[in-house]
Amino acid sequence: MAVATNWWELTLLCHPSLEETVFWRLDAFGCSGMVSEKHSQALRIRAYLPHVIDEVLDFAALALGFEQDARTLKLPQPHFQWQLIPAADWSNGWKQQWQPTPIGDRLIIYPAWLEPPSETTTNPGKEGQQSLPLRLDPGVAFGTGTHPTTQLCLEALARQIPKQRDLVLADIGCGSGILGIGAILLGAQTVYGIDNDPLAVASAQRNRHLNQIRPEQYAIQEGSIPELQQQLREPVDGVVCNILAEVIVNLLPQFTPLVKAQGWAVLSGILIEQAEVIAAVLNQTGWTVIADWQRGEWCCLLGQKRTEDGSSER
After folding, report:
1. Which of 10, 91, 203, 251 is found 20 to 30 A from 30 (Cα to Cα)?
2. Number of Cβ atoms within 10 Å of the Cβ of 52
3. What is the three-class DSSP state of 195?
4. Which residue from 314, 312, 290 is spatially nearest to 302, judged by alpha carbons?
5. Which helix (H) or strand (E) holds 49?
6. What's the confidence (pLDDT) of residue 313?
7. What is the pLDDT, as a whole number, of residue 111?
8. In whole angstroms, what is the distance from residue 146 CA to residue 103 CA?
């Protein structure tokens, strides 16, 4: 097979609320090296795709999908364009757009190609100490730390994890592994990661190695809830899940047997207008929403599993 010497560079200027759906569409289209950056009140997303001479790519259909997403959410129409660039330019071009990203006061996301300063490498045990560096190479998986839902989940984990010792968590739809890695860095004992995309699994495993986390600390495999259940010796203390709201609704009934009594779930990928529906399904399946946080058009819910008598601690 011939090695591609040129790459397609896809550039989309859109409303920030479209970021997650755009990443999902670009991933399904076969793109790699996706990155986003703020541009005034909009978001500029770049993605790259190898140029194969005998391959016909329907960029017009991809553009139509972006437009339909914007109409559904009643947002301004995005501007989409594509161009061929030399192979020598693509690999470094997108990386220059992604710089270290602080997440709350506990974490800072470092691209894999940047070395964190030595003073940020000490785990913070008290307030005022340096943030923990979380190194990341996103590959083709969603989760770079720039999207509000990822940031909200990491900040929620930073609030929850210090409250308990020896936590065992499940990372459902782990993507790049950013949430599972963040949980380990914040003090969780063990995380079980699952994703039905083999490319995401490979990306999460690479990032696990990049952060010097042992496989037994963050166990990652391909699959969904049934495969996760086979790994677990007993219910986990908490679940983190940052995927599309529609998928969360379908998975919620399966969360209950995964989690211990009065365990918790951090859920995002949820638009603010979808939060009421998610909260209602949580209530129907034995959970109580005990906190929520919002950023832009997105929100993150913290649910707690009720005991058999229907109670939950707040």
Report:
1. 251
2. 13
3. strand
4. 290
5. strand 42-50
6. 55
7. 80
8. 9
| Burial of 291 from C-beta contacts in 10 A (0-12 / 13-18 / 19+) | middle
Question: With contact defined as beta carbons under 8 Å apart, do 197 and 141 qualify?
Answer: yes
CA distance 55 to 43: 29
Q: Residue 114 has which token pair?
A: 């940047």
Instruction: Specify the amino acid at residue 119.
Output: E
For tokens 């960029």, the residue is: 59
- For residue 181, the Cα-to-chain-centroid distance in whole angstroms is 11
If DSSP codes are grouped into helix, strand and coil, which group holds residue 34?
A: strand
What tokens does 192 get?
């079980």
In three-state secondary structure terms, 269 is strand
The 8-class DSSP code of residue 223 comes to S
CB 152 within 8 A of CB 143: no
pLDDT single digits (tens) 30-88: 886 677 777 667 888 888 888 776 677 889 999 999 999 999 989 999 999 998 877 65
